[in-house]
Write a structure and sequence with these properties.
By secondary structure, this protein is α/β, with parallel strands linked by helices. It has two domains: 132 residues, Rossmann fold (3-Layer(aba) Sandwich); 184 residues, 3-Layer(aba) Sandwich (Rossmann fold), CATH 3.40.50.720. 36% of the residues lie in helices and 14% in strands. The protein has 14 helices and twelve strands. The strands form two sheets. The chain has a seven-stranded parallel β-sheet, with helices on both faces. A five-stranded parallel β-sheet has the order 2-1-3-4-5, covered by helices on one side. α12 links the parallel β10 and β11. α2 runs parallel beside α14. The model has no long low-confidence stretch (mean pLDDT 95). Pfam families: 2-Hacid_dh_C. Keywords: NAD, Oxidoreductase. InterPro entries: D-isomer_2-hydroxyacid_DH, D-isomer_DH_CS, D-isomer_DH_NAD-bd, NAD(P)-bd_dom_sf. This is Hydroxyacid dehydrogenase.
Length: 339
């Protein structure tokens, strides 16, 4: 073990097992001197302080405690934190960034399951699947299937946010034959055109225009102070009657109370994988509306998909050991534009 990079795992034990199954753990063991003790879940214990004292690489995941100044003081040799999950905002704060430690996130690996989930929901919502399933359970059977409300042909989908997930969703939608609108203040027409191969295309528009023109609106913007309640009552009112709102990004982007009112009026349908607050309290109106489906933040990597996050993280460890730039590098100035 002498001379090898010392690494420590900090996350929930079940997450460690899912992200690093036996074959992956063997790959990791071949790259670094992995701390042999239990996965760290509390940085305040004597065992954690001992492990952190010699750690050069900290592999983190869901359930990792916050790395505040006190914790960082116990890890004088720490040079890289590699996160086998998406956002690093929950455990890396100002104290971390001031120390010049490298950070990496597996957000790219987590993006595809979210994009795949989003496309599935959009296709299902166009068929009014959830409404029809309830109708069927009540004794109805396709008696409204010829209504122009049903179907995906000729539909326009508006994508709010050209994030890493938004940029995956756009070509998926184009290949399915949707007309695609995108609203993002950082996206140029040339950037948008590069997202989809010919003969498909995408149109960059302002947010209000996107809301007015779309049959489905899917949200992929980061949750920042300036995007809090980006879809407020006034903006939701711009959406077409019979349109669908899909949110797999962050709940705070949408005014929950306003959305509940618009859905209760029957004007728009909603599929929400994220909410504000999260979770919603039992009995919340959104749970009770027949035109709303709420799922428990499951669009990202789950179950068998979590190993993909671990594989990405192991790749980053290998790049660190070899002195190569990290593919998922996160810098402090990135925080203002990422989830």
């Amino acid at each position: 073990m002498a001379g090898r990079v010392a690494a420590v795992l900090a996350m929930r034990p079940d997450v460690a097992d899912a992200a690093f199954p036996a074959a992956s753990r063997a790959r990791l063991d071949a790259l670094v001197a992995l701390d042999p003790g239990p996965v760290l879940t509390d940085f305040g214990t004597p065992r954690a302080r001992e492990a952190l004292a010699g750690a050069e690489v900290l592999l983190t995941g869901w359930g990792c405690p916050v790395l505040d100044a006190g914790v960082l003081d116990t890890a004088p040799r720490l040079r890289a934190v590699i996160h086998a999950a998406g956002s690093v905002k929950h455990h890396l704060g100002p104290d971390f960034w001031a120390r010049g430690i490298l950070a990496s996130s597996a957000a790219d690996a987590n993006a595809y399951p979210v994009a795949q989930f989003t496309l599935s929901v959009i296709l299902l919502s166009g068929k009014r699947t959830f409404e029809m399933a309830r109708h069927y359970a009540e004794g109805g059977f396709k008696d409204a299937a010829t209504s122009p409300r049903f179907g995906n042909a000729g539909r326009t989908v508006g994508v709010i946010g050209a994030s890493r997930i938004g940029r995956l969703v756009v070509p998926m939608l184009a290949r399915e034959g949707f007309r695609v609108l995108v609203s993002d203040p950082t996206l140029t027409a040339a950037d948008a055109a590069a997202l989809v191969p010919a003969p498909w295309s995408v149109e960059v528009v302002g947010l209000d225009e996107l809301l007015r023109r779309s049959d489905v609106v899917t949200v992929h913007a980061p949750s920042l102070p300036e995007t809090h309640h980006l879809l407020d009552d006034a903006r939701l009112a711009l959406m077409r009657d019979g349109s669908v709102l899909v949110n797999t990004a962050r709940g705070a982007l949408v005014d929950t109370d306003a959305l509940a009112r618009h859905c209760a009026a029957g004007r728009i349908d909603a599929f929400l994988d994220v909410t504000d607050p999260e979770p919603l309290p039992p009995g919340h109106p959104l749970f009770l509306l027949p035109n709303v489906v709420v799922t428990p933040h499951l669009a990202g990597a789950m179950g068998s998909e979590v190993a993909g996050l671990g594989d990405f993280a192991i790749g980053e460890v290998e790049r660190y050991v070899r002195g190569l730039p990290l593919r998922g590098a996160v810098r402090e100035d990135d925080l203002a534009r990422i989830a």
